[in-house]
User: Which sequence fits this backbone?
C-alpha cells in the first residue's frame, strides 16, 4: 500500500494534479464521481483523460483529509449517486494549490522557454 | 485515517461498490446518448472505469494499517488451518506444553534456589564473614543450620570498625509441645540489631531490637514469622502480647515479621525468631562463651554503593584476620588444633541471594535435569518439525501456485510461521500451567525431612516469564522456521510438473528429515544412557550392605529435660524407660543408641593405640547391650555389653571388623586397649575391646566403610536428660510408647521415626535423578521412535511408484522390506554412533553424581544402544513391511 509519509515524487505530482483538478471541478458546485470525470475530460478538451477508476481513491483521500464532504443524492438522470462538495478547508486548499501550480508552471516555463528565444 | 474507519471498512466497501455501480450506469447512459449500441456502451463504460475490484481494494487498503492487517490475516489463516487438523494441533500443543512445562518447572526451582535475591532493601549490600580453615578443619561443638562462627568471634567482628553493620543469626529446631509427642518449630536466633540492619518490617507489633538482646535476657522476646502466625494462630492479632513456650521456656511474643522474610537460608523458613541471649535457656549447655562452639552465621550490611564498599570490607577482614584468630584461640584446644586455628583467615562473600545448603546438594542435579528436559524439548521439536515438513509438502502445490502468481516468499514464510507461532504460544501458555504443578511436585519430592520442611518461593517472576518466552520462541524457531523456508524454496515449474506422480522427492528435503531423525536418536541415546546410569546408581546405593537391618526399626527420641532429673539419676531414669519400653506388648527388642547410623548425626574422636594417634577421626557411638540384636548385627568375636560393664567396671568397647583391618594390620582387636585423644586437662580413660561386630556404614552409603567404636551406655558418666532408643515391634506401638513416656513425667517429649525411611530419604537426590531421567529418557526414546516411524512412512509413501515397479518387475517382497530397513538402519547407526560420543561426554560431566558406575562402564551404554536400536528398528519395520505388501497394480495406479 502507498505510504503517505514518503511517497515517490512523481506519484505525488500526478496525485496532486488530480487532487487539484477535482477540487477545482467541485468549486463550481456539488457533483458526483461520473460528473467530475466528465467535466475534467471535457474542460481539458480530452487531453487529461482521467482513468475513471483512479478518481475514486483520490476522492476517498480528499474526503479523508477533510477537503471535500460527501452525501447521497439523486442525479440528473434520476439515479442514486454519491455527491461530493467542497468544504471550507477544501476551498482554502484549492487557492493554495492553484497558487502553487502557477508558481510551478512559471518556473517550468522559464526553463523550457527562456526569454529571448520566443515561441 | 482514524481507527473508526479501520473497523468500519466493510460498510465503507459496500458503499463504494454501490457508488461504482452508479458510475457505470451513468457512463452507460452517456455512451448510449452518443449513439453507441447497448453492448458497446456497457463494454466501453467498464473499460473506462477499470477493474472495480482493484479500485475497491485500493480504497480498502487505504483504510487499513498494513502490517497489522497482514498479521491479522496470517493469524486468522493459521488458526483456520490449525482448526482443520485438530489432531495435529492437539498433539503439537500438548507435546510443547509438556516440554516447556518441564523446562519451566525446573528453571523456576533453580531460579528460586540460586538467583532470587533476599526480600530486603538493597540485598546487594549484604556480605557474610566466614572462616577459611585452609583445609585444616575445625574442632568443637557444631550445631544449627549454618555453623560457621562462634559467639566470641561474632563479638569481636561486631566491635570492629570498617566491616559494615555486623549482625549474626543461628538456627535450631525447638519444641512447641509441653509434654507428649513433640511438635517441632524452627527457631531463628537473631542479634538485637538484625532486623534494623536488614530493614525487615513488622507485619504486626514490633520486631526484636538491641534492648531485647542483653545478657540475662529476662523473659525473652519472640517474633513470629508471618507464615507461622497464619498457620498456627490463624493470623490472630491478639497473639502479639501473649506468651509462647519453646522447649518449655516462656517467651513474650512481641510481633510478627513481614510475609516475605524467611530468614537467610533459601529453601528454609523459620517459625520463631528470638534474641541470641535466650540461647542458654534453650540449650542444656550454652555455646555463647565457647570459642569452639560453632552455631552462628555472621553477616553485615556494607553501606555505600557498588563493589567498592564490599572490597573495602573485604580488605579490612583480611587485615584483621591474624590478630583476630591469634587472640581468640579457645582455651580447650590442644596444640595441633590451636595451631590450625591461628592460621585461619576471615573471608568475605556477597550474600545478596541468601545462603543455601540446597545449592551444593541440588545445584548440579537441577542444571543437569534442565539440560535433560531441554534435550527432550529439542527432540519433541524435531518431531514437530517433521510433521510441519510433511504438512508443507502436502501443500507444496499450493505454495508453488502462490509463488507463481506473484506472492513474495517472505510473505509465505511469514504465513507458515504464523502457524508455528500460534502453536508455540498455546504450548508456552499451557506449559506455564503445567510448570506450576510440576515445580511444586519437585519441591515435594525433595522435601523428605519432615521436621525441617523445604519452603521455596516458586512465584512467577520476570526471570521465569522471560525463560518461558525464550524457550517457546526457541522451540517455535526450531520446529517452524526450517520447514517454512523449505516449503517455500520450491521452483514452481518443477513442482507443478512433478505434481501427482513423483518417483523421488527432491534430495534436499529428505536430508533435512534424515538429519532430524539422526539428531533425535543421538539425543535420546544420551538421555537413555543417563537414565540407566542414574538408575544404576540408585540401585547400587540401595543395595549397599549397610551392615545392619534397618527395616522396621523404629527410632524413639525422648526428651526428659523438664522432668528435672538430677544428673546422677539420669542413667537410672534411662534404664527405667528402656525396661518399660521393652514391656510394651508387641515390642520384641529395644535398647539405647546415642547415635543411629546413617540418620545424619555423628560423633567422632581421635583414637590412640599404643601411643599412636590415628587420623582421620574414628566414628563413635554409645549403645545398650541389646542394640546389636535389635539392629541384627552379627557378633563375630567376643561378646556384647553385659552386666560387667558398669560405671565402676573397666571401660569396655565393641568395635567393627574394620578396626582390626585398618588399625591393627589385620590382627584381632579382641583384648586390645586404646584411648581417645584428649584436651589439655583431661585424664585418659583406657578402653578394652571386648567384642567385634560386622562392619557398618555410619555416615553415608557412599565411600569406604571405616571402623566404628561402640561404647557401653551403662558406662556413660555424664548422662544427658534425653535418650534415643531403637526398637523392633510386631505391630504399631507408638501410642503405647507415648503413654509410657508421659507416664514417667507429663512434660516429657517423644518423637518417632522409621530408620529405613530416614536412610532412604538420604537417597532423595539419587532417586530424583533416577526417576526423572528415566521418565525423560523414556519419552525421548518414544519420541525418537515416532520420528523414525514418520520418516520411514513418508519415505515409503513417496516411493510407492518405485516400489510398484520393482514388485511388478519381480522383486521379492523381502527385498523391498530389506531396502527400506537398510536405509533406516543407516539412520539408526549414524544416530546411535553420534549419541554414543555425546553420551560419553555427558556421563563424564555427571560423574560426581554416580555411584558404582562411571562414564566408561560398558553396561549402561550397551543396554541403551541395544534398546534404542530395537525400538527404532521396530518403528521403521512397520511402514517398511506395509510398503512391501503393496499390490503392484494398486501402487502403480497411484
Assistant:
Amino acid at each position: 500500500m502507498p505510504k503517505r509519509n514518503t511517497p515517490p515524487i512523481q506519484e505525488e505530482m500526478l496525485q496532486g494534479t488530480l487532487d487539484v483538478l477535482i477540487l477545482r471541478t467541485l468549486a463550481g458546485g456539488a457533483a458526483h464521481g461520473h460528473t467530475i470525470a466528465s467535466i475534467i475530460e471535457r474542460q481539458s478538451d480530452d487531453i487529461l483523460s482521467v482513468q475513471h477508476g483512479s478518481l475514486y481513491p483520490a476522492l476517498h483521500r480528499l474526503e479523508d483529509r477533510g477537503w471535500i464532504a460527501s452525501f447521497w443524492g439523486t442525479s440528473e438522470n434520476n439515479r442514486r449517486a454519491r455527491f461530493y462538495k467542497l468544504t471550507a478547508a477544501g476551498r482554502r486548499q484549492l487557492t493554495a494549490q492553484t497558487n502553487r501550480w502557477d508558481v510551478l508552471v512559471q518556473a517550468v516555463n522559464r526553463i523550457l522557454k527562456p526569454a529571448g528565444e520566443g515561441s | 485515517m482514524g481507527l473508526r474507519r479501520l473497523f468500519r471498512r466493510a460498510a465503507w466497501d459496500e458503499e463504494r461498490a454501490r457508488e461504482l455501480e452508479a458510475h457505470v450506469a451513468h457512463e452507460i447512459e452517456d455512451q448510449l446518448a452518443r449513439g453507441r449500441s447497448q453492448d458497446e456502451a456497457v463494454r466501453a463504460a467498464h473499460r473506462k472505469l477499470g477493474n472495480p475490484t482493484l479500485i475497491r481494494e485500493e480504497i480498502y487498503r487505504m483504510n487499513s494499517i498494513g502490517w497489522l492487517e497482514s498479521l491479522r490475516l496470517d493469524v486468522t489463516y493459521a488458526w483456520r488451518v490449525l482448526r482443520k487438523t485438530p489432531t495435529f494441533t492437539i498433539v503439537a500443543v500438548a507435546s510443547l506444553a509438556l516440554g516447556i512445562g518441564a523446562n519451566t518447572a525446573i528453571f523456576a526451582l533453580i531460579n528460586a534456589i540460586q538467583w532470587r535475591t533476599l526480600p530486603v532493601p538493597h540485598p546487594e549490600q549484604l556480605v557474610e564473614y566466614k572462616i577459611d580453615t585452609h583445609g585444616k578443619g575445625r574442632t568443637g561443638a557444631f550445631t544449627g543450620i549454618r555453623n560457621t562462627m562462634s559467639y566470641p568471634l561474632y563479638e569481636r567482628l561486631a566491635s570492629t570498625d570498617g566491616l559494615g553493620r555486623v549482625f549474626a543469626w543461628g538456627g535450631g529446631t525447638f519444641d512447641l509441645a509441653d509434654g507428649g509427642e513433640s511438635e517441632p518449630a524452627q527457631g531463628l536466633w537473631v542479634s538485637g540489631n538484625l532486623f534494623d540492619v536488614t530493614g525487615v518490617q513488622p507485619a504486626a507489633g514490633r520486631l526484636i531490637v538491641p534492648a531485647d538482646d542483653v545478657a540475662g535476657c529476662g523473659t525473652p522476646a519472640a517474633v513470629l514469622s508471618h507464615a507461622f502466625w497464619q498457620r498456627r494462630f490463624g493470623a490472630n492479632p491478639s497473639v502479639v502480647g501473649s506468651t509462647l513456650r519453646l522447649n518449655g521456656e516462656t517467651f513474650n511474643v512481641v510481633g510478627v515479621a513481614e510475609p516475605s522474610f524467611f530468614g537467610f537460608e533459601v529453601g528454609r523458613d523459620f517459625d520463631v525468631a528470638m534474641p541470641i541471649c535466650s540461647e542458654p535457656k534453650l540449650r542444656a549447655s550454652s555455646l555463647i562463651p565457647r570459642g569452639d562452639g560453632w552455631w552462628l552465621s555472621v553477616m553485615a550490611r556494607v553501606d555505600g554503593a557498588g563493589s567498592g564498599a564490599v572490597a573495602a570490607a573485604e580488605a579490612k577482614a583480611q587485615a584483621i584476620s591474624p590478630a583476630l584468630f591469634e587472640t581468640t584461640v579457645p582455651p580447650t584446644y590442644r596444640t595441633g588444633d590451636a595451631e590450625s586455628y591461628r592460621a585461619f583467615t576471615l573471608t568475605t562473600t556477597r550474600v545478596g541471594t541468601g545462603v543455601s545448603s540446597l545449592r551444593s546438594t541440588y545445584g548440579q542435579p537441577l542444571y543437569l535435569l534442565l539440560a535433560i528436559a531441554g534435550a527432550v524439548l529439542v527432540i519433541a521439536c524435531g518431531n514437530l518439525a517433521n510433521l510441519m515438513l510433511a504438512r508443507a509438502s502436502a501443500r507444496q502445490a499450493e505454495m508453488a501456485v502462490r509463488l507463481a502468481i506473484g506472492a513474495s516468499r517472505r510473505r509465505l514464510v511469514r504465513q507458515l510461521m504464523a502457524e508455528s507461532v500460534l502453536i508455540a504460544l498455546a504450548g508456552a501458555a499451557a506449559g506455564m500451567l503445567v510448570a506450576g504443578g510440576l515445580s511444586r511436585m519437585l519441591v515435594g519430592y525433595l522435601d523428605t525431612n519432615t521436621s525441617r520442611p523445604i519452603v521455596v518461593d516458586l512465584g512467577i517472576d520476570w526471570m521465569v516469564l522471560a525463560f518461558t518466552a525464550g524457550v517457546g520462541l526457541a522451540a517455535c524457531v526450531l520446529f517452524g522456521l526450517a520447514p517454512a523456508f523449505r516449503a517455500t524454496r520450491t521452483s514452481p515449474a518443477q513442482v507443478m510438473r512433478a505434481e501427482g506422480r513423483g518417483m523421488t522427492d527432491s534430495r534436499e528435503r529428505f536430508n533435512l528429515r534424515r538429519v532430524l531423525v539422526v539428531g533425535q536418536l543421538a539425543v535420546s541415546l544420551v538421555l537413555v544412557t543417563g537414565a540407566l546410569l542414574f538408575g544404576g546408581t540408585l540401585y547400587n546405593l540401595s543395595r549397599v550392605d549397610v551392615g545392619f537391618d534397618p527395616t522396621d526399626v523404629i527410632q524413639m527420641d525422648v526428651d526428659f529435660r523438664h522432668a528435672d532429673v538430677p544428673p546422677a539419676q539420669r542413667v537410672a531414669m534411662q534404664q527405667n524407660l528402656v525396661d518399660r519400653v521393652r514391656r510394651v506388648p508387641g515390642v520384641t527388642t529395644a535398647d539405647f543408641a546415642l547415635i543411629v547410623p546413617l540418620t545424619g548425626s555423628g560423633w567422632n574422636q581421635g583414637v590412640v593405640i599404643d601411643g599412636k594417634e590415628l587420623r582421620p577421626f574414628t566414628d563413635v557411638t554409645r549403645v545398650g547391650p541389646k542394640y546389636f540384636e535389635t539392629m541384627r548385627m552379627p557378633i563375630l568375636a567376643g561378646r556384647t555389653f553385659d552386666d560387667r560393664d558398669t560405671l565402676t567396671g573397666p571401660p569396655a568397647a565393641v568395635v567393627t571388623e574394620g578396626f582390626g583391618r585398618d588399625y591393627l594390620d589385620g590382627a584381632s582387636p579382641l583384648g586390645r586397649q586404646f584411648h581417645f585423644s584428649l584436651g589439655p586437662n583431661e585424664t585418659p580413660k583406657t578402653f578394652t575391646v571386648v567384642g567385634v561386630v560386622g562392619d557398618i556404614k555410619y555416615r553415608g552409603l557412599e565411600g569406604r566403610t571405616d571402623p566404628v567404636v561402640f561404647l557401653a551406655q551403662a558406662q556413660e558418666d555424664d548422662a544427658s536428660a534425653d535418650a534415643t532408643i531403637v526398637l523392633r515391634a510386631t505391630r504399631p506401638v507408638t501410642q503405647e510408647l507415648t503413654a509410657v513416656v508421659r507416664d514417667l513425667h507429663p512434660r516429657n517429649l517423644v518423637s518417632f521415626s522409621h530408620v529405613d525411611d530416614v536412610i532412604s530419604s538420604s537417597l532423595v537426590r539419587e532417586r530424583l535423578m533416577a526417576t526423572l531421567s528415566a521418565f525423560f529418557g523414556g519419552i525421548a526414546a518414544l519420541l525418537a521412535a515416532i520420528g523414525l516411524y514418520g520418516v520411514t512412512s513418508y519415505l515409503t509413501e513417496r516411493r510407492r511408484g518405485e516400489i510398484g515397479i520393482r514388485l511388478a518387475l519381480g522383486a521379492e517382497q523381502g527385498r523391498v522390506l530389506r531396502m527400506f530397513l537398510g536405509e533406516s538402519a543407516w539412520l539408526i547407526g549414524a544416530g546411535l554412533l553420534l549419541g554414543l560420543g555425546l553420551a560419553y561426554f555427558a556421563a563424564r560431566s555427571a560423574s560426581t553424581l554416580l555411584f558404582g558406575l562411571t562414564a566408561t562402564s560398558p553396561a549402561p551404554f550397551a543396554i541403551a544402544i541395544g534398546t534404542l536400536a530395537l525400538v527404532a528398528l521396530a518403528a521403521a519395520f512397520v511402514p517398511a513391511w506395509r510398503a512391501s505388501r503393496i499390490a503392484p497394480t494398486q501402487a502403480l495406479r497411484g
